[in-house]
């Protein structure tokens, strides 16, 4: 049997549950399967939305492609953000929000970190509109340039940490 002690325990417990079934009685699906179907509290309301923005299938497909084509600065910053590396905040990489794809998104805090490369230089008007729409959903957007992420990493990480801690303080008030 593969897996760690927890996986072995759940498999053993499931086998035991079959031993005590009455004829015609069904076994309840494991908790993990019920969660995947959305059978836990609060999931139904957020199933197809992120902070009120409906998910777009096109944005989801684009996000999948972008995850495998990260720029050097995005890959570098991801090393610090992943595994709750900054202020205990869990970030998602190339996450679709509505019809947009955020470079890094912390759902818990509603914090988006964008790394603007050379492609963003000619699209400043579009980026401004995009930022306004995301902020209208109650999200906070931090923008950094490629060079800033690579050359002034400490400054970038400090700004992200400060923003995350401030947002956490605001949440604690409510």
What does this structure look like?
There is one protein chain. The chain is an alpha+beta fold and 174 residues long. It has two domains: 41 residues; 125 residues, Endonuclease, Chain A (3-Layer(aba) Sandwich), CATH 3.40.960.10. It is 49% helix and 17% strand. The chain has eight helices and six strands. Strands 3-4-5-6 form a four-stranded mixed β-sheet, with helices on both faces. A two-stranded antiparallel ribbon has the order 1-2. The termini are far apart. About 22% of the residues have low confidence.
Task: Provide the fold topology.
Layout: H1 5-19, H2 31-36, H3 43-46, E1 49-50, E2 53-54, H4 57-67, H5 72-81, E3 92-97, E4 100-106, E5 111-116, H6 124-136, E6 140-145, H7 146-151, H8 153-173
Parallel strand pairs: 5-6
Antiparallel strand pairs: 1-2, 3-4, 4-5
Number of helices: 8
What would you call the shape? Answer: globular
Helix content range:
40-55%
| Span of the ends, CA to CA | 46 Å
User: How large, in whole angstroms, is the Cα Rg?
Assistant: 21 Å
Number of domains: 2
- Spatial order of the strands forming the largest sheet: 3-4-5-6
Low-confidence spans: 8-22, 25-47
Name the CATH architecture of the largest domain. Answer: 3-Layer(aba) Sandwich
The CATH class of the largest domain is: Alpha Beta
So, the CATH homologous superfamily of the largest domain? VSR Endonuclease
Query: Averaging pLDDT over every residue, what do you get?
Result: 74
At the fold tier of CATH, the topology name of the largest domain is Endonuclease, Chain A
């Amino acid at each position: 049997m593969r897996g760690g002690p927890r996986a072995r325990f759940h498999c053993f417990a499931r086998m035991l549950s079959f031993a005590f079934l009455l004829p015609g009685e069904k076994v309840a699906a494991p908790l993990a399967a019920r969660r995947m179907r959305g059978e836990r509290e609060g999931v139904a309301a957020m199933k197809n939305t992120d902070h009120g923005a409906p998910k777009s299938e096109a944005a989801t497909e684009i996000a999948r492609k972008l995850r495998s084509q990260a720029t050097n600065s995005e890959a570098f910053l991801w090393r610090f953000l992943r595994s709750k590396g900054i202020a205990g905040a869990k970030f998602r990489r190339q996450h679709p929000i509505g019809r947009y794809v955020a470079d890094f998104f912390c759902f818990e805090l509603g914090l988006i970190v964008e790394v603007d490369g050379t492609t963003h230089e000619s699209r400043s008007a579009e980026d401004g509109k995009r930022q306004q729409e995301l902020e209208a959903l109650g999200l906070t957007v931090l923008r950094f340039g490629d060079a800033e992420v690579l050359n002034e990493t400490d400054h970038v990480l400090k700004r992200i940490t400060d923003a995350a801690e401030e947002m956490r303080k605001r949440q604690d008030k409510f």
